[in-house]
Amino acid sequence: MSERDLLTSCVHCGFCLEVCPTYQLSGDENNSPRGRLRLWREESEGRLAADPWTVEYTKDCVGCLACEPACPANVPYGEILEQTRHQQVSTGRVRPAAALRLAAWLAARPGLFGLAMIPMRLLRRWNAIPHRQMFAGRPSITLTTAQYAQRLMAEHQPTGPRVALLTGCLMEAVFREINFATVRVLIENNVQVVIPGDQGCCGAMQEHLGLDGVDALREQNRSVFRAASVDAVVANSSGCGLATGKALSGDLPVKDVLSFLGEIGLTGRAQRERRARVYVDLPCHLVHGQRSPGIPAAVLDATGYAWSLAPQAKDCCGSGGVYHLQRPENSREILEKKSAFLNTAAGDPVILATSNHVCMMQWASAGRSGLVTRPYDVKHVIQLLDPGEQFRVSRGPGRAT
Ligand code: SF4
Ligand code: SF4
User: Which one, out of 92, 127, 148, 269, has a CA that is 20 to 30 A from the CA of 28?
Assistant: First the structure.
């Protein structure tokens, strides 16, 4: 579709307004999907001069994509937003902060990023990072997920479907323990896991920032995963899964790892902590971006915990890739509304579980910034299924996808 076709596809019905977190916060039409589309169209057709306010309203968008499934005209808002952000950066109207540009540059070089983040992994192991978004975890310092998977594959020799795991840039460099848990859960369920060593960043960060290089990153992953001879690519971060789905569209299925486990019928786990109560939040890029119905109930049941969906589970938490760094006040206000239930939620201890590391960071910040005043843990759902270091491969599931 041409840029003009994209921008004229909105029929101004307003059905998207009530799902938009920034419209909900501000009540400002220009801060809604319909309003932003209107501003971008007016500019592109020359009726509105290039205006700093248009840039501000563009920056205010979280990129949650809640407006897409709400739209009866199927306006591809995410695609339009991606093009607009890129255009505003490439024409010099927007200049992302130097620290974010450096982070994006590093993320596109996973080897270097992994080395640069060694101190961060060490500090996480020691639970010594004071940053409000840092959730607890014990990542391996030197062993990579690829090395770990190779070792477990040789040890357990699963015989089921063969998948490639997208390890991600930030996930592998900082939150590696979630990748390790993913490998264990897959192999325990008789899934063959390969991790192509030359896979790169999915490009989501560059896309959020409007930077060049997204196509090259997608192309690299497309050729790497196509060469891996797998049934599917699985992702344990919904944002990275969405971006990789764009790269591999028409070539290979890209599946959220929890949806994939639901499809193959995973092994149930024993209940470990009878008193713990799990509240499940659904990442926007899973339910709106990937149009998934959510995390399968059978998968959540298999954790062995008493669980329920968090109130407003499908609403945005305000993390939005790098949005929480670029628009911290908006991000906090969105989170405040969403996280309030935790203060009085039943259960002790309480776990907030989701399936995107950036959402996990956002949820961790609710406690550290005082929005939630009772103790709670933040976990990836895959960690609740994790059998730990000692496990045996189940030969139950494992039919080919
Ligand atoms: S992506 Fe989210 S924040 Fe942006 S316009 Fe759509 S609903 Fe609103
Ligand atoms: S729901 Fe779709 S068509 Fe209606 S105003 Fe929003 S973007 Fe436009």
Answer: 92
Ligand 1 atom having least distance to the Cα of 63: 1
- DSSP 8-state secondary structure symbol assigned to residue 280: E
Cα dihedral 305, 176, 315, 185 in deg (nearest 10): -40
Q: DSSP readout, 186-205? A: HHHTT-EEE--TT----SHH
Per the domain annotation, does 83 fall within a domain? yes
Task: Report yes or no: 202 and 244 within 8 Å, Cβ to Cβ.
Answer: yes
The arithmetic mean of pLDDT across residues 166-173, rounded, is 94
Residue 244 and residue 139 share a domain: yes
How much of the chain, in percent, has pLDDT values that exceed 70? 95
Residues 222 and 130 in one domain: yes
Query: How many structural domains is the chain composed of?
Result: 3
* Cβ neighbours of 217 (radius 10 Å): 23
Q: Which atom of ligand 1 is nearest to the CA of 23?
A: 8
Q: Would you state the pLDDT for residue 401?
A: 38
Element (H, E) at 80: helix 77-90
Residue 145: the pLDDT is 97
Q: Probe ligand 2: pick from 9, 13, 31, max atoms within 8 Å of CB?
A: 13
